[in-house]
Design goal:
By secondary structure, the protein is mainly α. It is 44% helix and 0% strand. It has a domain at 30-90: Helix-hairpin-Helix base-excision DNA repair enzymes (C-terminal) (Endonuclease Iii, domain 2, Orthogonal Bundle), CATH 1.10.1670.10.
């Protein structure tokens, strides 16, 4: 990780992808815009800073699943849980999601 971060244009997101896919090293969770948004929507983090989101997610997941988690959230964010119009009615996580827009919640 430290060596990759010295390369121009390489930050943690890219370094995590390279380490996991090229070397099978799961050093951290790759946090892009989808991972950040969905992790927040699912109540897995309260942070918006990618490093803090990564640190919140790491203890929640088995280390071997860190990269797969990111890929799955990215695909889910692109196809179902869109930033502007999430398709909660099609979401397999809707029962678990505190931000499910299809559920009528009592107002406090």
């Amino acid at each position: 990780m430290a060596e990759l971060l010295t390369l121009p244009g390489v930050a943690r997101k890219t370094a995590n992808v390279v380490l996991a896919n090229a070397f099978g090293i799961h050093h951290g969770v790759t946090v892009d815009t989808h991972v950040k948004r969905l992790s927040h929507r699912l109540g897995l983090t309260e942070h918006t800073d990618p490093l803090r989101v990564e640190r919140d997610l790491m203890p929640l997941l088995p280390q071997m699943d860190w990269e797969n988690w990111s890929i799955r959230l990215i695909y889910h964010g692109r196809s179902v849980c869109d930033a502007r119009q999430p398709a909660c009615q099609r979401c397999v996580l809707s029962d678990l999601c505190p931000n499910n827009q299809d559920v009528q919640r009592p107002r406090s």
